[in-house]
Specification:
The protein is an alpha+beta fold. Helix content is 51%, strand content 20%. The protein has helices spanning 3-42, 45-76, 125-130, and strands spanning 93-96, 100-103, 108-112, 115-120, 138-141, 144-151. The protein has a six-stranded mixed beta sheet. The longest helix has 40 residues, at 3-42.
Length: 152
């Protein structure tokens, strides 16, 4: 497959994954709030207060997850997948002699059409090591020699 098509498919897939993550968290928040509110109608005394407090702790945790998901979505929305890069920067698709990386947001391993890619951020250790590199550049990362073969 043409590398630019691969980049577009990766972009679309990550966008889908981020949207899914956000929706799952929103549903979990709604469910936790419903559970908290229904407990308050049927419980009495200390058990009621403990149950409500535990539900609120869970809701607070989920709201932190939602904030993170929204932040990733916002950060990802700044990427223009169609742009071709001469050096590794945000939005680059990087092929090396070891792994393939999509410099975007840190969501990890993605299998796409029998190829493996890693969606990483520039803030990650590997993202920092790759940043600014050009095709043909070499680097050493965790005692491994890495050759940047192609950047899209």
């Amino acid at each position: 497959m043409h590398p630019q098509k691969t980049k577009q498919k990766l972009f679309d897939h990550i966008q889908y994954l981020l949207s899914e993550r956000k929706e799952e968290v929103l549903q979990a928040i709604a469910s936790a709030k419903e559970s908290r509110d229904s407990d308050s109608k049927s419980s009495v005394g200390d058990k009621h207060e403990t149950s409500r407090a535990q539900a609120q702790i869970e809701i607070d945790k989920l709201e932190i997850q939602l904030d993170k998901a929204l932040h990733l979505e916002k950060e990802f929305s700044t990427i223009h997948w169609e742009k071709e890069h001469q050096q590794v920067e945000m939005g680059s698709l990087v092929f090396t002699n070891h792994e393939n990386y999509f410099i975007s947001v840190g969501i990890g391993k993605i299998e796409l059409e029998s190829e493996t890619f890693y969606a990483i951020s520039l803030a990650s250790p590997m993202g920092k090591a790759l940043q600014g590199k050009k095709s043909g550049d070499q680097l050493t990362f965790h005692e491994r020699k890495i050759l940047v073969k192609e950047i899209i």
